[in-house]
């Protein structure tokens, strides 16, 4: 075994060196080529090409009548100082049609290791479909842009705002003021003629996805490590969503309290029409338990918070690890509740919950104080096919993919390169789905027997290849270089662990290198700051050990080992 005792360079604010990337490129230039800086309004048809890197400076708005086309493999960065944001006004179109091998990437313009949630604004797409807000509602986060049909106009339910396909959105999300934020992807009044599929939002400073009204459908969504909510629905949204993966960081949550699903009819919980009534199916939500010796962030609340007269329906989905599984809040008002409300929507069948799984929640089901609803009787009624597990480990998932799902495995490796979220054969999720409910009728929903976003091992892993589960270290300084990893060689680093974990001082990072290669080790704290970097040089194949610095302060850390082929990560705790 080769034991590495090379000095580690502490980097409290900046990264001293840039590691080799976990994809085909062999190095990352420290200085990117001069970007094409984009400001103001786009009023004519425009194409952005993959041979350039684009920088959004301030609010960049595609105006009505214009189409912005983005080639596959294009990199667009949001300027941190101006909170660069892309707005697609109603009547305009965005054609961002990436491919699995050449996704389109919207990301921070900060260097690897220095990126943070909220580095830039995000993407806001607006349309002329339905909404239930009086007048001509303005979208949150920016001024001067409205959504919906407009006063006196009929909603265009099949309105087409373009295509968002194979797109990653990294480090967006800005809090402007209370209840006024820019999300990773904001959709306001977007119609069903719009295509939204294969979209990943990572490290949003607010919600990952938020729908304000609209009838747009979406498939294959990934929400990773948002600060606030993952799927937020409001203002009369009535689209369909199938296949969603939600991954959360147990140490980070929002001051407003964080939920996976949050849904309102409107801010006051009135009966404004049309009701918020989306249908979700096949969503997997994982809030992993905290690392050994740490506590879950106290601001985490509900896997599903259905409130304010919503009629959101959820089928065939899995929610794991939240303190409260489902909170059905009848009204903004105390009991006796005005009607209609969220509870009456459940009783009438406007809101349906079938074939879902709640796991690892201290309180699986909760109703509002003063409620007489027997939510347990509803949820556990046999014909509805719902299941409650006391422990997340009962789901039988792969702990290395899901970051410590089994609390007994306190040192599970986080696979950030090519995770495979398909189900082991023994998982109870491989069966139990149903598509017989009338809300799942029609051509949009793909039928199957498994619950959650992925089927059994050997079936298609729709999140493979185009996604990036470790965007903090990815080099975006080469035009067209957008893939995060080479999945074929993701086995190069194996058995990554830290011992002892937790540690009160010195600890060893151990792993096996299957093929000789140069390696970089980067240590990041709980808020994403790089605190230590080691360039280990070229290592021979075989077992390796690295002495971690004893100077690390108390807290949760993530160590990432990066080679030219792969990148693997392990979480550890310092408790002195």
Q: In percent, how helical is the residue content?
A: under 10%
Radius of gyration: 23 Å
Largest sheet: 17 strands, parallel
Poorly predicted parts? 1-26, 402-413, 485-489
Compute the average pLDDT.
Answer: 87
The portion of residues forming beta strands comes to 25-35%
- The N- and C-terminal alpha carbons lie at a distance of 28 Å
Number of strands: 40
Total domain units: 2
The chain-level structural class is mainly beta
- Please give the count of helices: 2
Inertia-based shape = globular
Keywords:
576 residues; mainly beta; Immunoglobulin-like; eleven-stranded parallel sheet; 2 helices; disordered N terminus; signal
Strand-helix topology:
Blueprint: E1 2-4, E2 9-10, E3 36-38, E4 41-42, E5 46-48, E6 53-56, E7 59-62, E8 67-70, E9 75-78, E10 85-88, E11 93-97, E12 104-108, E13 122-126, E14 162-170, E15 174-177, E16 180-182, E17 185-188, E18 195-202, E19 209-212, E20 218-224, E21 231-234, E22 240-247, E23 261-263, E24 279-286, E25 302-306, E26 313-315, E27 318-320, E28 324-328, H1 342-348, E29 353-354, E30 357-359, E31 363-367, H2 375-380, E32 387-389, E33 413-414, E34 493-499, E35 507-513, E36 517-525, E37 530-539, E38 542-548, E39 555-562, E40 567-574
InterPro entries: Secre_tail
Protein name: Por secretion system C-terminal sorting domain-containing protein
Keywords: Signal
Task: Give a nutshell description of this structure.
InterPro entries: Secre_tail. This protein is an all-beta fold. It contains two helices and 40 strands.
Question: What does this 3D model show about the protein?
Answer:
The chain is mostly beta strands and 576 residues long. The chain has 2 domains: 2-8 and 489-574, Immunoglobulin-like, CATH 2.60.40.1930; 47-440. The protein is 2% helix and 34% strand. The chain has 2 helices and 40 strands. The strands form 5 sheets. It has a 17-stranded parallel sheet that branches. It has an 11-stranded parallel sheet with strand order 4-7-10-13-17-19-21-23-25-28-31, with no helix packed on it. Strand 39 and strand 40 (567-574) form a beta hairpin. The chain is globular, with a radius of gyration of 23 Å. The two termini are 28 Å apart.
């Amino acid at each position: 075994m080769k034991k590495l005792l090379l000095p580690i360079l502490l980097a409290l604010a900046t990264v001293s060196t840039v590691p080799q990337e976990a994809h085909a490129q062999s190095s990352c230039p420290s200085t990117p080529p001069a970007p094409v800086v984009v400001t103001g309004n786009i009023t004519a048809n425009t194409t952005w090409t993959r041979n350039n890197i684009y920088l959004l400076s301030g609010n960049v708005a595609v105006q009505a009548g214009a189409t912005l086309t983005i080639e596959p493999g294009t990199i667009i960065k949001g300027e941190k100082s101006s909170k660069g944001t892309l707005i697609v006004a109603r009547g305009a179109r965005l054609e961002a049609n990436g491919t699995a091998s050449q996704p389109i990437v919207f990301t921070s313009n900060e260097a690897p290791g220095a990126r943070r949630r909220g580095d830039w604004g995000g993407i806001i797409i607006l349309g002329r479909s339905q909404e239930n807000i009086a007048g001509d509602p303005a979208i949150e986060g920016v001024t001067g842009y409205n959504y919906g049909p407009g006063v006196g106009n009929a909603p265009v339910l099949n309105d087409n705002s373009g295509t968002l396909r194979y797109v990653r959105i990294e480090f967006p999300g800005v809090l402007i003021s209370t209840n006024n934020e820019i999300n990773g992807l904001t959709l306001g009044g977007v119609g069903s003629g719009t295509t939204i599929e294969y979209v990943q939002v990572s490290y949003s400073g607010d919600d990952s996805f938020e729908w304000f009204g609209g009838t747009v459908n979406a498939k294959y969504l990934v929400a990773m490590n948002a600060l606030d909510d993952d799927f937020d629905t409001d203002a009369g949204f009535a689209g369909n969503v199938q296949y969603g993966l939600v991954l959360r960081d147990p140490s980070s949550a929002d001051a407003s309290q964080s939920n996976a699903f949050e849904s309102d009819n409107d801010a006051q919980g009135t009966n404004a029409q049309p009701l918020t009534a989306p249908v979700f199916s096949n969503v997997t939500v994982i809030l992993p338990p905290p690392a050994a010796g740490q506590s879950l962030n106290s601001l985490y609340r509900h896997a599903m918070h259905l409130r304010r007269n919503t009629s959101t329906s959820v089928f065939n989905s899995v929610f794991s690890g939240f303190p409260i599984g489902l909170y059905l809040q009848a009204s903004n008002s105390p009991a006796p509740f005005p009607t209609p409300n969220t509870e009456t929507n459940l009783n009438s069948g406007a809101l349906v919950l079938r074939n879902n799984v709640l796991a690892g929640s201290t309180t699986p089901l909760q109703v509002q104080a003063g409620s007489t609803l027997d939510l347990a009787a509803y949820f556990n009624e046999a014909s509805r096919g719902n299941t409650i597990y006391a422990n997340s480990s009962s789901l039988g998932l792969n702990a290395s993919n899901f970051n410590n799902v089994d609390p007994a495995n306190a040192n599970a490796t986080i696979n950030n390169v090519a995770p495979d979220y398909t189900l082991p054969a023994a998982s109870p999720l491989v069966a139990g789905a149903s598509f017989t409910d009338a809300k799942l009728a029609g051509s949009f929903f793909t039928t199957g027997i498994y619950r959650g976003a992925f089927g059994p091992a050997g079936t298609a892993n729709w999140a493979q290849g185009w996604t990036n589960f470790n965007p903090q270290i990815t080099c975006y300084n080469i035009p067209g270089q957008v893939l995060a990893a080479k999945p074929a060689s993701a086995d190069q680093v194996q058995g990554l662990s830290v011992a002892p974990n937790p540690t009160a001082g010195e600890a060893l990072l151990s792993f096996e290198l299957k093929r000789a290669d140069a390696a970089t080790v980067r240590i990041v704290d709980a808020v994403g700051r790089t605190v230590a970097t080691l360039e280990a040089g070229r290592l021979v194949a075989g077992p390796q050990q690295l002495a971690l610095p004893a100077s690390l302060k108390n807290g949760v850390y993530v160590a990432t080992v990066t080679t030219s082929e792969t990148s693997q990560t392990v979480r550890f705790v310092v408790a002195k």
